[in-house]
Amino acid sequence: MHHPSNPHSTDAFPSSAAFDAISSSLANDEAGRKDAIKKGGAVFAFELKNDAKQTESWYIDLKETGTVGKGAPPKKASVTLVLSDKDFGQLVSGKANAQKLFMSGKLKVKGDVMKATKMEPVLKKAQGGAKL
């Protein structure tokens, strides 16, 4: 019997806690959610790879709903960010900068690169809520 909140997901992907934090910050702050949709205007997908070489996907819909989900987005993502779980954790905690990760080849962007830059303020929302 699988428990809906799968504990392995956070164990294998520690930084995935950030998605929960972003999700709750968007859900609990209607003005902030509307603002994020206005600024984001896109569906962002993330492919994270952990140390065990497993890959998991998440998405943040800042085009219409302002929601976060696991797996592939229901609508085609405007941009997909591919990086390691560790680098994503650093990005969310503000220890790493998306541009530097991109320049050093640790962050791969598929789709609209300009949209990727709209992601940073939303990731900053997670810093308030996520205890990483």
From TrEMBL:
Q: Which Pfam families match?
A: SCP2 (PF02036)
> Which SUPFAM superfamilies does its entry note?
SCP-like
GO cellular component, as recorded = cytosol
Q: Where is the SCP2 domain?
A: 28-124
UniProt protein name: Oleate-induced peroxisomal protein
- Organism, by scientific name, is Massarina eburnea CBS 473.64
